[in-house]
Amino acid sequence: MAIRKIVVLGEDDILRKHARVVEKFDRRLHTLLSDMAETMYEAQGVGLAAPQVGILKRVAVIDVEDEHGLIELVNPVIVESEGSVVGPEGCLSVPGRRGTVERPERIVVVAQDRNGQSFRLEAKGLLAVCICHEVDHLDGVVYTDKMIEDVTDQETEAKEE
Ligand code: NI
């Protein structure tokens, strides 16, 4: 495994591109997923999407320190969402900033694991926010695009994703 360099917004337009669907569930994908998890933990983030490490594939890793532990999402699609909640977010690609964003309260995501096996996951709270944040990255969207209020200078519990 290896730590990969996290792309910072403004230094590379890869964060603005639409990531490609993964078709090959091979060793290369497994290495990417393992490296992304290591990179996320090293940066003390709760989520990381492949474009943030310069790879334009529909891949994300998440660990919000709940009962799920590390979640690997390949080709994730949010198939249900309901409710609305506004809370602070940060992003490893936008260091040192925080902002509030409106997100669904509950979602259902369908994705594949590293071997191509499909699964369905229902999420609420921080996990739901994190999944939405990472899926946005796969479509070239950064949370600052949706930011309601910049809360960089306020005390928040915001995690970086
Ligand atoms: Ni992010």
Provide a short characterization of the protein structure.
The chain is built from two helices and eight strands; from the N terminus they run αβββββββαβ. By secondary structure, the chain is of the alpha+beta class. A hairpin with a 2-residue loop joins β4 and β5.
Overall pLDDT level: 96
Helix content: 10-25%
Rounded to an integer in angstroms, the radius of gyration calculated over CA atoms is 15 Å
* Strand composition percent: 25-35%
Report the count of strand segments: 8
Which secondary-structure class do the elements indicate?
Answer: alpha+beta
Q: How can the largest sheet be summarized?
A: 5 strands, antiparallel
Overall body shape: globular
Q: Low-confidence segments, ≥5 residues, pLDDT <50?
A: none
Task: Describe the protein's topology.
Elements: H1 27-42, E1 47-49, E2 59-62, E3 71-82, E4 85-91, E5 94-103, E6 106-112, E7 118-124, H2 125-138, E8 149-150
Antiparallel strand pairs: 1-2, 2-3, 3-6, 4-5, 5-8, 6-7
The protein binds nickel (II) ion.
